[in-house]
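Input/output pair, single chain:
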Amino acid sequence: MAGFEAELFRVGEPGGWHFVRIPDDHAPDGAGAWGRSPIMATVEGQRWTTSAWRDTQRGWLLAVPKRIRGSFEEGDTVHVEIEPDPERL
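Output:
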C-alpha cells in the first residue's frame, strides 16, 4: 500500500488534538455517520484501528493520538498509510 507524507497540526490549546490532512488521492470513498469512515491507519510504523473524519473546511483528517505519534509534535512531517477497515464498514 502506498502511503503519503503529512504535517502534524494541532487543533485547540492546550493539549489539543493532533491531526494530519489526508490528500484527496488517499481519502476514503465516502463518509458514514458523523462524517467518519472506518480505517486502519499506520503512522511511522505504528498501526491502529480508527476513523478518518471529513471536515468541511480542511477535507479528510486523521487524528493521531500521543501513544501513536510518540515524540512527533505539531509541525513535524510523518509517513502515513491508511486503508478501509472492512470489519467496520
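The chain has one domain: 4-88. The mean pLDDT is 92.
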